[in-house]
Design a protein that fits this description.
This protein has a single domain, classed as Nuclear Transport Factor 2, Chain: A (Roll). The chain has four helices and eight strands. It is an alpha+beta fold. 28% of the residues lie in helices and 43% in strands. The longest helix has 15 residues. β6 and β7 form a beta hairpin.
Length: 176
């Protein structure tokens, strides 16, 4: 019995003298599916949480709009940008966007305020991932001294740091 107790104490002492080894685990970043998009064929595509760094691009883009800096806006647009305005107008190309904005800015004084942003990435069937930013903005515009406000939701496809495609949905401010 004494030998058993001595052996147990000796084993405990030896085990406690072993250096502590940190356990390493290999974790794979798994995309979190946050919803779905349906393509033109009706196939379900995963929406995953997107890259939040695109929000910085958007903030700079919106500031350029409020500053009416047409050159900066054009530099942030992809050359082949496509804009789907809420009234059904489709603007194709950075040059056409610049012309449309110049006409708007000449007759009014729009100012933007970003209220919220959410990013997502659409996983295409061919493996391509498309980065999108959905953002809620208030646009206050002054025309001939009269101020109006529009609540605007935009879906922006951002590719290589450039605005590639925009879908714009507007709603007039609530009348109380």
């Amino acid at each position: 019995m004494k030998n058993f107790i001595l052996l147990a104490l000796l084993s405990t002492a030896l085990i406690s003298c072993q250096p502590t080894v940190e356990k390493t685990t290999s974790t794979t970043k798994k995309d979190t599916v946050i919803g779905y998009e349906f393509d033109d064929k009706g196939e379900k595509l995963n929406l995953i949480g997107g890259d939040v760094t695109v929000t910085e691009i958007w903030m700079e883009y919106i500031q350029a709009h409020s500053d009416k800096d047409l050159d900066k806006i054009a530099a942030m647009d992809a050359e082949d940008i496509i804009i789907h305005a809420s009234d059904g107008t489709v603007i194709k190309g950075s040059a056409a966007h610049k012309v449309a904005l110049a006409a708007w800015f000449e007759s009014s004084n729009p100012m933007w305020k970003v209220n919220w942003m959410a990013t997502n990435t659409v996983q295409q069937k061919d493996g391509e991932k498309r980065n999108w930013l959905t953002t809620g903005n208030d646009v206050t515009d002054t025309v001939n001294g009269e101020e109006t406000m529009i609540h605007s939701i935009l879906d922006a496809n951002i590719v290589d740091g450039k605005i590639k495609q925009l879908y714009i949905y507007d709603r007039a401010k609530d009348k109380e």
